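Quick illustration, no need to memorize.
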Amino acid sequence: MTTQIDETEPIFWYLSTRIIRRAGDPEWEGYINFIGLPHLLEIRTIDSWCNPYASGSSNIYLPSLEQIDEALENLPTPIRGQQYYLLFVDAESLDISELLHPRLKLLGYDLSDETRTSSLLNCGRWTGVLAPIAQRVNQYGLLNLEDAKKAQSLLPEAWNYDHHADVTIWALFEVD
């Protein structure tokens, strides 16, 4: 079902039930403008400040996708239109283009430091060489893989080697 790049390194998938943030939400309206992305209608990210866990949820670690159905039984069922199942994985740990799973919808790519703070959505406005990349986020506030890789290479110098600039690229999926 998945193709691993390095057979010696296990792939860990992370699954949780998250609250969807939208333009117009009191918590988000001013912040979306502050980060320079007023065109966003909905936020999807691994960052739990931006997409809080639904009540009773946390990340469940899955060593393989074969365990997804069992793991979903241990999470709160999302409230339609307000919450969703978020599945994410280090995008460089496998070839996403070869991933075939009927329950997964690729949402896009996020960047985060080791604390899972989204460098894209929770570290202020992207300026300078990063500004054009930020303006290309999709409807969820996420990047395509090419832009995520470009941002990953530019962040250290653009942010003067701040700890938030050392990032992992995450592939985010919604589980149906």
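Residues 13-175 form one domain.
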